[in-house]
């Protein structure tokens, strides 16, 4: 995927998150935001997959450990949805792990439990 497409999708992701946050505000469960975000992105003709299984491989062999991506946009961008009091380093490590293990270049960590969404919206890159 070309950078122009990544940036177009990044804008769609941010404006979709903003719309969901405007509709619900902070204080709800992660799943509420996740499903509303799926609907908002689909309304913008963005291809969304959710709860995507990501098996852990080590030296080419499956370990038996699986992770689940909250959202995968256009098969290239990972969104990890949160509804927590504050983002902690472990949340950043979670998204970075997913980016590396899935070999994806761009991801977003979105905490909807904030008064201003820009304070809960974090962009993360891997080999971008």
Summarize, please.
This protein has 128 residues and is of the alpha+beta class.
Describe it.
It contains 3 helices and 5 strands. It is of the alpha+beta class and 128 residues long. The chain has one domain. Helix 1 crosses helix 2 (30-43).
Q: Which spans have pLDDT < 50 for at least 5 consecutive residues?
A: none
Q: How many individual domains?
A: 1
Looking at how many chains there are and whether they match, the oligomeric state comes to: single chain
Neighbour order of strands in the largest sheet: 1-2-3-4-5
Q: Average pLDDT across residues?
A: 96
Total strand count, please?
5
The helix fraction, in percent, is 25-40%
- The radius of gyration over CA amounts to 14 Å
Distance between the termini: 11 Å
Strand content: 25-35%
Structural class: alpha+beta
Query: Which shape, going by the Cα principal axes?
Result: globular
What string gives the helices and strands in order? HHEEEHEE
Biggest sheet architecture = 5 strands, mixed
Compute the number of helices.
3
List the helices and strands and how they pair.
Elements: H1 3-24, H2 30-43, E1 48-58, E2 61-73, E3 77-82, H3 89-102, E4 106-111, E5 121-125
Parallel strand pairs: 3-4
Antiparallel strand pairs: 1-2, 2-3, 4-5
